[in-house]
Design a protein that fits this description.
- The chain has 14 helices and 10 strands.
- It is an alpha/beta fold and 388 residues long.
- The termini are far apart.
């Protein structure tokens, strides 16, 4: 049979399957990292509780937590230079032409952009990270397209610790220029470039309370990930496609990037979008109930299964061989409430409080007969020693 027959048969089966199951629909799945797939609602709520307690214990932290102008979020993302990433528009061509071409950069190079805004919807101009060691005429010419923006340089073009400290200086200048009271709170992810010793000292000396978001949860707890960058990248593709269509034969490069990016940034960096992003991420008002937990991958059943697996892994099987008699297997299990349960064949179960857990070496040193007596008192040792 021909391949068209099987293709038609597959379509017929699919249409009938969809009719039999109207509750199902075809959806494009979104990619989630392995770490993000393991995040649970309980972990996020615990982070909110610990964060509120920590910040409120810092002088001026409680006031900053309730002031939208003093709560900031910053995040960086890469924007590709290749114009083909935009929507390809149709053009007129001679009938019968076998190929219609559109010039592109032919590279996967991208520019790192760091954005920052507060919960009141005030956006700081973006910070571009360009590859290079020294500021050249190319960089100065490029920034004419977006004169309000900032530029940083390093050898890779990615965010580095020194580049982040340079941005922090611009951030302090922005806060001071707008008359925002200090200390201010800066939420960001826990990337290594953000947690350098120089960055921590700079924040301490300039009235910045830096607080890292829960690892792998930024897709629902970071304002720029929740409500800014998705829309911004959609606009970026549109303006790149429009620019390429209006400038046939030209490609987007480092010199033209800022001016084109400005056309995508302006309609997205609005007060309304900034306020909504902070609200949907739960950061302002500071309320974990505003987080969209339906986007989490891990279900309650999966959490229960994982806890059961961890509980099984906490069991340790020991084999005790007394001086006389046959070897006896001893199963030691630490329960979730911190107690130790000892199981032996043909012996009573022993459960001890967490402050009376025997060490493995202590158990091996005991005579076997000691476990036959439920009233036996066990030596005081650390639980951690048992788990090593």
């Amino acid at each position: 049979m021909s391949s068209s027959f099987f293709l038609l048969t597959g379509r017929i089966w699919l249409n009938k399957f969809k009719k039999r199951h109207p509750e199902l629909s075809l959806r494009a799945p979104s990619k989630v990292s392995v770490g993000a797939a393991m995040v649970t609602e309980g972990q996020i709520r615990c982070w909110f509780a610990r964060t509120e307690e920590t910040i409120c214990n810092i002088p001026g932290g409680d006031a900053a937590l309730g002031n939208p102008k003093r709560m900031f979020n910053c995040d960086e993302s890469g924007f590709p230079l290749d114009a083909s990433t935009g929507r390809v528009r149709k053009v007129f061509a001679a009938k019968g032409a076998r190929h219609v071409h559109q010039r592109s950069t032919g590279t996967k190079e991208q520019i790192t952009v760091l954005g920052c805004a507060n919960a009141a919807g005030d956006f700081m101009p973006p910070f571009f990270v360009y590859p290079g060691a020294n500021l050249t005429r190319t960089h100065t010419e490029a920034m004419k397209g977006f004169p309000e923006a900032y530029i940083g340089l390093n050898e890779s073009g990615w965010m580095k610790a020194a580049t982040y400290v340079a941005w922090l200086q611009e951030f302090v200048n922005f806060v001071d220029a707008h008359g925002i009271e200090k200390p201010v709170i800066l939420f960001n992810d826990s990337h290594a470039s953000h947690l350098s010793l120089d960055a921590c000292r700079f924040c301490r000396d300039n009235g910045i309370i830096y607080h890292a978001l829960l690892e792998n949860s930024t897709f629902i707890t970071q304002p720029f990930d929740v409500g800014i960058y998705s829309e911004l990248k959609t606009h970026w593709k549109k303006v790149v496609g429009a620019w390429a269509f209006a400038n046939m034969g030209c490609v987007v490069d480092k010199c033209t990037f800022p001016g084109i990016f400005r056309n995508a940034w302006i309609p997205v960096a609005t007060r309304e979008n900034g306020c909504k992003a902070f609200q949907r991420s739960g950061l302002f008002p500071f309320n974990p109930d505003n987080v969209d937990y339906t986007r989490l991958v891990t279900s309650a059943d999966e959490v229960h299964d994982r806890n059961r697996q961890q509980e099984r892994e906490s069991e340790q099987l020991l084999e005790i061989t007394p001086r006389r008699g046959k070897a006896t297997q001893l199963t030691i299990k630490i329960t979730p409430d911190g107690k130790l349960t000892i199981n032996m064949p043909d012996a009573d179960r022993l459960t001890t409080p967490s402050d009376a857990v025997p060490d493995v070496e202590d158990i091996l040193a005991m005579p076997l007969e000691i476990f036959d007596d439920p009233d036996t008192s066990l030596p005081d040792v650390d639980v951690d020693a048992l788990c090593k």
